[in-house]
User: Fold these one by one.
Assistant:
Number 1:
Amino acid sequence: MSALAQARPRTTFRIHPRPRPTELGLLAIVAVAMVVGAAGLGATQRYRAAIEAGSPPTALDFSPPDARALLLYLLGLLVVHALFVLAGRRTDQVLLPAIGMLGGIGLLLMQRLPQDTVVQSFGSLQLGLGQLQLGWLLVALGVITVLALAVRSDAWLRTYKYTWAAAGILLLLLTFVFGSDVNGARLSLSIGPISGQPSELLKVILVVFLAGYLSENRALLADESTRIGPVRLPPLPYLAPMVAMLAIALGIVVVQRDLGAALLFYTAFLALLYVATGRPSYVIGGVALFIAGSYVLYHLFGHVQIRVDNWLDPWRDPQGAGFQTIQALYAFARGGILGVGLGAGLPTIGGRPPVPAIHTDYPLAALGEELGLIGLLAVLGLYLVVVSRGLRIAASAHDDFRSLLAAGLALVIGIQAFIIAAGNLKLIPLTGITLPLISYGGSSLLANAVVIGLLIALSDRGIEPPPPPRPPRAIRRFRLRRGPAT
Amino acid sequence: MIARRIAGADRRGTGRPRTIGANVFRTGIAIACAFSVLALGAGWWQVVDAQRLSTAPDNPAVIAIARRALRGDIVDRNGTWLARSERDANGEALRQYRDDTISHVVGYASRRYGTAGLERTYNAELLGLSGSNAFGQLFTKFGQQPDQPLGLQLSLDLRLQRAAVRGLGSDKGAVVMMDPTTGEILALASTPTFDAGAIADPDTSQATFEGLVDDPNRPLLPRATLGRYVPGSVFKIVTGIAGLDSGAITPQTTYPEQPPAEKHGLVVNGFRIKDGHHPQTGSTALDLYEATEVSCNIWYALTGLRTGGQTLVSEAAELGFGASIPFDLPTAASQVTNGNGGAPGGFEDDAELASASFGQGETFVTPLQMALVASTVANDGVLMKPHVVTALTGDGPGARAIGPESWHQVLDADNAHALQQAMQQAVEGDLGKAFTAGAKVPGIPTAGKSGTAELGGTGEPHSWFIGFAPVENPKIAIAVLVERGGRGGERAAPLAGDLMQRYFELYGNP
């Protein structure tokens, strides 16, 4: 945030309150859903505990398992809404309730899982899974608010795109050198007591860089071709910097074994390239490259082979490599259409949920079991709402950079949700990335908060016009050759 | 907004890229399609495939139910209980088994080690879970009653099963007895066996199971269904079926090159095939009956070569070779060849085909598969689907009888009769008696074929016998394998004779 403060020292809040009735109404629905969910969860948990203790209760107790957490979260959403109203910006009113619902579902889920799954101590204060998630959610709401209110110009993003790219690469390199391993992948970087997964933040940086680069060069990328004999190829010189940036990111990610992030970056790259150029050939070529690359990776890396083999037939090693996958499928199946009910699912094996990474990699399996097919479809629908709002912002943005940035940010959330959901549902091999806004984890929540915050800021219909475009050298040459464009 | 963008979108060829709005719109459609695929995937697991997954034996929910629910009883064909459940002092279900002889069929249901055998195949039914599907749950969700557990009625006869296990004694081996006209399995013995009750009992479970897993004799392997063995001469019946059914041979076929080759062997592709019956048959050119009676390797090798590798493999597939046999228990696939060769049918060359024709190539079979071969010949060429569960009993949904079902018409009745006669001669003929001493059931016409599977090296060969009785209107077909049991006629044939005799004692002479 310090960069922001330096770039825009004159940012001040003008108090012109503007009511946001849509947002308020939707937030009310979120609040009702949360209260009902928490009450049901509390009742189920107490009922189960009583049954296991051998004394079935005569009446159900519908108080939430952690009423203070519920209140804090809903209050947090309300405060954000109030600040939005006070700031008076004409920004999107659907995004906040949508992510509020997703975050709320995540919060209920983390309260429902065994609290000792993750425990962090701050001095004498011990926080369990649900409390930690609440803390991160509140921080995430803060990030969203600050970005949504404070970002009024995008110059600091578009001007320094190579700086951002360099910072991102540096971040990854730091992780690689100083990071610690999580499940066999070097993912986590610790600074003092706080550790995080930089690849989450990198996805935002990648989108910013791509949006900046593509907005300057999309005309060239769309129309120019390199001819080799009769074959028309894309204009390789203009693709090069972008591909190089991507290759470095991918390379590091693959070396770090963070396959989920690699897949996310690559898919987001292709999608954004298509949005910028409208050339399907890029997508086709990209998919072909992907298939070739996957083939090479499969034969080069043992852990890729395990993932793929395990996807093709988890029942080959049901107690070992295939265990998680199979248990997740069992969970989906147990849920059926209506679900077993929040808090009533997940039979434990030896006191633990059978899916060890349920709170990070497999939350969808838990939701599928407890909320059923309808709950799962609702969650998928919420992601589609977020994506579609983001794409609307992209379609109505003032210039190419904002369009591409908004589209990229929205797509990154959609693609990430798809990759992990498809992995959970055994449609593609499982790659360990988080389910955006639902999974446990600070880095993931904060990175997605940055995405949502920027999207809300970009949606401002009263946003000041973008700075006059600074034609890059490539465009100037283009104009010289073709004559001035209209 | 989006629509307006699209309207101005398709201005191709003007030197400007289309507006981003239209591309954004298409990308959005793509994302929506991708999410529809997710929805379909979720629907698949949560609705379409939900019942199979929800009743899978390894499903922790099923295991949790199994701790409490009393499994249904398993009884043999006479109603004698084989497995039943009681509650222990803590009110948890405890499974009891009648004795060790049935362990490989019935299996076990253990809290710690899951389920095996019929306990695994019919786990959902035995627990009363079979009636639950996603749509059914929709209506029973509130106020759900668990279904009644179902019981299993088997075609197994405990008395024959015990006789078979006792007959195998301390040897490793397997016995399969079945009714060739119905496919009902009356005995399915594998030795060594194990104490299923001790695996089910939580107090002894771990020690028992770990001891069994470490046992070099592999007592947990159900040899009758999952053991794969070199068949030796019992495979000649498969070659005979293939030759006759394809028309490559008739029962009267003789080979002029066979008698002279008896002395020094028949050379195929540089590989020498030998026989041991020259002193008895001299220079006679043998036909199907005589060749089967004296178990002539050279005659069957020539028959296999004339039939051709492709036909041999495809005829064997009619008998169940090449894939797991559909059965109540897991079965291993039997093979005529490993299929890696370039010659027709996947043989390496004619030498392998010739060797396979008398069961000494890359041929591996399960005892159950060989019982099906004997049963097919006995039942005039019609192969019945083997099954050991004849009814799911009880009041719950899914209770039903499982009747006989024909599987393949493998060969026509005339050719089947010829093989029946040849196999009878192999047991009762003057020369046949020397090979299969003891297989004959006194007073009842008996047909069969012994096998001595050479394994190379110095050890004893596997001892095999397949057969059936009576020859007309057969009641019982049998396959016996004794690992390292010596010649077929020494170990397997007498045991088969005893067991068939025991059958007729129990069920009366025809």
Number 2:
Amino acid sequence: MAAPSTDLSAALVLASPQLADWLVVLPVVLMIGFGAVLMMVRKSVRLHGTIAITGLALLVLLDAALLIRISTYGPITMVMGRWLPPFGIAFTADLFGSLMAFVSAVVALAAGVFALRDIDAGGRRYGFFPFLMLLMAGVSGAFLTGDIFNLYVWFEVLLISSFGLLILGSEPEQIDGALKYAVLNLIGTTLFLIAVGYLYAIFGTLNMADIAGKASRLRETAPLVTLTALFILAFAMKAAAFPVNFWLPASYHTPRITVSALFGGLLTKVGIYALIRVTVMLFPVEREELSFVVAVSAALTMVIGALGALAQNDLRRLVGYVVIAGIGNMMAGVAIGTPAAVSGSILYALHSVVTMTALYLVAGEAARLGGAWSLSGLGGLYRRAPWFSAASLALFLAAAGLPPLSGLWPKVALLKASLDIGAWWLAAAILISAFIVTLALARVFLLAFWRPRPEPAPELAIARDWRIAWPLGCLTALSILFGLFPETVLDLSQRAATGLAEPSAYIRSVFPGGAAP
Amino acid sequence: MNTLILRTVAPVLTALMLLFSVFVLLRGHNEPGGGFIGGLIAASALAIYGIAFGVSAVRRAIRFHPMAIAGSGLLLATLSGLVSIFAGVPFMTGLWIYPEILGVEVPLATVMSFDIGVYLVVVGAITSIALALEQEEPERAEAIGEQPPPPVRAKRPRKPRPKPQVEG
Amino acid sequence: MEALFAILIGLFFAAAIYLMLSKHTVRILLGVVLLGNGVNLLLFTTGRLTREVPPIIPAGMDALPAGAANPLPQALILTAIVISFSFFAFLLVLTYRAYQELGTDNSDEMRLAEPRDEERPPMGY
């Protein structure tokens, strides 16, 4: 092969990357690799659990290393195939992305351990663990990519694997839920793709750092507000914000409870992540224009989610509405848009990933102990499992935002931020929503845990199981620790929000020699 | 569909299409073609074989489960990208070696092994979907879900299916 | 040329939305497919339209000839086609299964996961 006569060196990365830069791509590569291996050994279901837990534990370690690296040295970038950005696809991780990736990995590990008990051989043969690995590849990729079309691709990767997880078992209820979930989410991602198309038409680039650098020049001439509105609609649909939230309560209660837990913890938060990334970092001025619409949607999401939770009898559907109420809180931070508010949203997202997953796991364990999903059928759990009940109470308080647990700090930050800009009605919505969620969850504790069983069923001997105790215990401990010692996380989220509002470090990491022409 | 003509032609056609798919895969290295389109051709070859001789004949012929083939392709593609960690260049950079095989210099690249990985992923994934669609009803539950047929089917009395309403 | 394509894309979107507003799952599915194709056309147009020169480097050259088409939108479309193709295959199977299991293709009557007469939560202790 003859050496090319055209000089390509101007378009290539010539220095070899530092080993630490590999941390940006390795989480995704690791998950895809483990998913591939699990697909190859699909018949030997006994191995699945061991392989998958090993993979998820490695993922937690990698994401922790990435987080430490980034919080010390700032954002890092790696481009695919040596092509310099904006030509090559860049993976860029900043503090926000790596925080989300780390917490998701922890939650996925917990859910993976829980699945060892919850997912039987049938579900494993169907491919629960390979799908879980690919889901995590999609989630990690979405958090770590620096290219907006690549973000779309990761959305689709996690969407496809979520379809697979959703119909695990192929029961009629699941197919009913999956159909609505699939169609509406597909329309949501297609809207995202439409927005990406227009973005390319306007900017001629898909690299997020490049877009952030160029937006100020094009602001006068290009229809950027319309574009931002399209992005907000697409991501709100992924995040299940009112009025495009109806797919969530229709589908999230149908799959196995581990799958619900993963979805409730991770998927909506990926939508929120993309919303914050695009509106706060790429189009801050346009977000300002649209902030009233987002604020109204946020307030309605909060209140409707909370009211929905109050009206549910099925524990899983109740938790689904609590997830929606949380989404409203995160949207409120986006609507206000000051660094303090965005940091509140990030905090809330981190808290919500842990707490919502744990709440679904609590629902699953309650149903296993009590033999029913509905509040009317449950009862007497406190007498049967006091430790489990204590953990559940802690998680309920955390989800409701009561001190001294993890839900308090983000709510305080958001309240303060909304009062600072004089949006008293938004603050009121946050408080009302928190109050109603408290009522709904307190009623769960009252009915399912405190009161005696409605009809005395034969006491089944239910053994304690580490595969349930450890994940639930660790997630609860995380939530309590975050509530009692919030300084580190508060500091990290504030720095992440500052990095989004002032993305010069992000841009410098992609273009070390100054912005692209 | 299961006619004498098809059954006579299918083996030849399948063999030709598989050969052609490999040709397209390798041609894609420097010219139009590549792993994705090659994989689609191979998957359609297997689909034709399945139409002629039934799904179980295809499953026997390809020896491995389609999803296992897809998994091996995914692993190969991932590893091809990962090789560059040892060469000190960013992820997915194409690396070349020029071994002499029988006195001929053969350029080999991670780009090609990545493309072969894509080929296998496409063959595996599309074949498994195609086989699931070709399969007759009783076999299907076993093929898609890989689960014992759900007890629901036996227990639940099937609701009378209302005719799809015609609008207008 | 771009204006013509813009009108065509608009027609695609209009037809897709009309189909997706239907209650019958098969029509919704067709609408989704049409929407996906409209988006592909949109991506194609966003790279600006040129004529006759495909973005392939001819033998003996190292760079694209002048006036070649923009290869990036084509790569994007290829990705989008692959994804929408696999989604379509999945949705097709899912719709068919839903019709078998639920006995209807009317989305109003698919209430198995969200039953109409759902029990209220207990009002008292």
